[in-house]
Amino acid sequence: MTTAAGSTHQRTARLAFATCAGLPDLDPDDHELREALDAQGFPSDVKVWDDPTVDWAAYPHVVIRSTWDYTDRPTQFADWARRVQRTSTLLNPAAVVAWNLDKTYLRDLERAGLPIVPTIWLDPERNLDARAIHTRFPAFGDFVVKPTISAGSRDTGRYEAGQTQSRSLAITHAKNLLGVGRRVMIQRYLQRVDTEGETALIFVEGEFSHSVRKGALLEGPYRAEEHEGTLYRQEAMTARDASEAELEVAKRVVAALPEVVPGVDGPLLYARVDLIPDADGHPVVLELELIEPSFFFHLAPGSAQRFADAIAARLG
Ligand SMILES: Nc1ncnc2c1ncn2[C@@H]1O[C@H](COP(=O)(O)OP(=O)(O)O)[C@@H](O)[C@H]1O
Ligand SMILES: [Mg+2]
Fold it and tell me: Is 197's C-beta closer than 6 angstroms to any atom of ligand 1?
């Protein structure tokens, strides 16, 4: 426990950041955030979301951060979020967690008129055979196979439609995911990511905060052994100002959330919109991160302070 300078009172953390067992001290990028909150008189604890000894009710506020291992146990994670919310204010709320866990939320965005990466969805219940999966793949060009519940590019592979061997690897990949009851997404590989990268736009309380560039990540088929023991694929991040077109799309996505996400009626503490350019250069939504996005504070001076201020205002 820390003692506030100039105060005789011991300071008890009334805020917990939720993380995963693999990162018991949070992602280093978040340290600046905790320090900024500390400096404002809001000390925090860091707790592992699935540690059964944690008394979440002891914290009036719980902010989700690097809980990246939940993708193997999404139901358990959603239950945890609901449970925490019974006794604490969870940010973002449990309803948002439940909605945002599964990339099928992209369909809701699409229905709301927002541009997403065109996607074909395969449901495990349909028991698709190899031939049926094969017919869902594009006839030419590169394409991506990934599960709807994932993070850090895990279980995500890139294939070449024109190559028999690559197609059959893609079929195996899709079959393996479907076989364990996971829903699968098939997308064209949007080539411009190779030259222009992906842009992540971060919003705090519904207001645009900062943006960063992520280099292309997918080189080929998914190989489980490359991911053994890692939480995410190594990402090449740099600072980048979003274009007008990117800002426009991302702002529309954030503005649409109260209409699209059940149980949301005001701005969310945080949101990250990941965009890549489609074949015509128009930004389309690859991912909307409302649960545990990295914010890349170190690439945007002032952004950790901005986020800390927003949390402090909520703690009041
Ligand atoms: N359709 C696509 N075109 C190009 N790159 C893609 C595509 N889908 C995924 N990727 C690459 O794979 C990475 C991970 O995919 P993403 O959909 O963001 O899932 P997650 O980050 O949740 O694992 C992206 O950052 C991007 O580099
Ligand atoms: Mg992503």
Answer: no
Burial (CB count within 10 angstroms: exposed 0-12, middle 13-18, buried 19+), residue 129 = exposed
User: DSSP E strands: which ranges in the chain?
Assistant: 15-19, 44-48, 61-64, 89-91, 119-122, 142-147, 157-160, 184-188, 198-204, 207-214, 237-239, 270-277, 283-289
Which ligand number lies closest to the CA of residue 231?
A: 1
Q: Which atom of ligand 1 is nearest to the CA of 286?
A: 17
Q: What is the pLDDT of residues 45-98, one digit of tens each?
A: 999 999 999 999 999 999 999 999 999 899 999 999 999 999 999 999 999 999
The Cα–Cα gap between 68 and 306 comes to 24
CATH 2.170.130.10 is right for the domain spanning 15-99: no
What CATH number belongs to 101-115+191-301?
3.30.470.20
Residue 98 in contact with ligand 1 by CB distance below 6 A: no
Q: What's the pLDDT tens digit per position in 188-227?
A: 999 999 999 999 999 999 999 999 999 988 887 887 777 6
Over residues 241-277, the pLDDT tens digits come to 999 999 999 999 999 999 999 999 999 999 999 999 9
